[in-house]
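Researcher: We are triaging several targets before committing to wet-lab work. For this one, the compound of interest is nicotinamide-adenine-dinucleotide. I'm pasting the protein sequence and the ligand SMILES. What I need is the predicted three-dimensional arrangement of the protein with the ligand bound, expressed as C-alpha cells, so it can go straight into our comparison scripts without reformatting.
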Amino acid sequence: MKFEVKNNKVLVTGGAGFIGSNLIDILLENGNSVVCLDNFSTGNIQNLELAQSNANFTLIEGDIRDKDTCIQAVEGCDYVFHQAALGSVPRSIADPITSTAVNIMGFVNLLFAAKEAGVKRFIYAASSSTYGDHKALPKVEHVIGNALSPYAITKYVDELFAKNFSDIYGIETVGLRYFNVFGKRQDPNGGYAAVIPKFVSSLIKHQSPYINGDGTNSRDFTYIDNVIQANLLAAAVPSAIFKERMKEYQANTAGVPGINEGATISEVFNVAYGERTSLNELAAAIKEGLSNYDPAIAAISFQYGPNRPGDVAHSMASIDKGKTILGYVPQYSFQTGLKEACAWYWENLK
Ligand SMILES: NC(=O)c1ccc[n+]([C@@H]2O[C@H](COP(=O)([O-])OP(=O)(O)OC[C@H]3O[C@@H](n4cnc5c(N)ncnc54)[C@H](O)[C@@H]3O)[C@@H](O)[C@H]2O)c1
C-alpha cells in the first residue's frame, strides 16, 4: 500500500532552510499547495528558487515566536511540517535564551495554531540529541537519557508538548528524531555549520578541516532524501492503519509502553539510516569523494582538537519503529548519499 501527500494544502515552517526547502520541492512536485513560514535567520532565499517559480507556493516572511503570524500561516492547512528551529548544540550553549524562545515558545505557538485550525496532523522535527547521555546502541525511541545541552532540552520539551496537546486537544502529532542529516543546501558557512558541509567546504578551499576529539566519535549520518521520505509517510499513513501497526510494533518490541485504544496519535520516530560512521571514516570518505573532482584534495590532512561540550560520543538509531508503522525504508546509505552531496557541493562551492 502506497500512502502519499497529494493535492493538500500544507504549511512548512523553516522552509528556507536545508531540510524544509528540500521538503517543499517534493511537496510541490506532488501537487500540494505549500505555504512556507520563515524568518531567514539561518535560512536562505536561494533555497526557495525552484519553489518560487510554482504558482502553488506562498512565502510568509515571519517569526514563529509571534503567535498571530503562526495562526495566519496555518489557516486552511491540512498538514503542518514544523521544521523551523535554531539548530546546533554549540549555538544553544552560547545563547540558550534565544534557542529556548524559538525552539520551545515558537513550537508551542505553532502547535496551538495548528490545533485551532483543526489540521489533520502536526509533523515536527525532533532530534537524536534527546537520547543525551544514554549509552545504549542502537537508540530505541522509548529509552532516553539525560539531556546534554540546552538544544537537546528544547527538542525534548517539544515532544512533551506534542504528546500533551494530543491528549488534551486531540490533535495528531508525529515527531521525527533526525540523526545528523546531510545533503544538498546544508549551509557550510558560519561557526555553527554541521560537520559534513564544514569538512567539504574546507577541503574544496584546500584548507585542513578540524575534527573535535580524536575522530572516533561516531554518528548515524542520514541523507536528506531519507528524511523527506519519513516526513511524507508521517503525514500520509491513515490513522486507523497507524494505530494497527502501533499495536503490532508494541507486541513485538520489549519495553514499549502500552497504547490506549482511544488515544489520539502522538508518536516519535528515529529518522536515520541505522549504521554509524566515525568522524575519521567520514573524513576519509569525503576526501575520497572530492578527490574525484580535484585530485589534490587526497593529500590534505585533518587537524584534531578537544571534544566539544554537549556532544554525545556515539549515535546510531534503530529504525524498526519507523519501518513497522510508517513503512519507512531509507533508500540512500551514507556512502550513496555522500556521493550525491559531494557532487552538489562541488557544483555549488567550487
Ligand atoms: N540538520 C540536522 O542534522 C538536524 C538534526 C536533528 C534535528 N534537526 C532539526 O530539523 C529542523 C530543520 O533543520 P535544518 O538542518 O534544515 O536547519 P536550517 O537552519 O537549515 O533550517 C531552519 C530554518 O528555520 C528558520 N527559522 C529559525 N528560527 C525561526 C523563527 N524564529 N521563525 C521562523 N523561522 C525560523 C531558519 O531561517 C531556517 O530557514 C530543525 O528543527 C532542527 O532542529 C536537524
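Researcher: Any quick observations?
Model: The longest strand covers residues 121-127.
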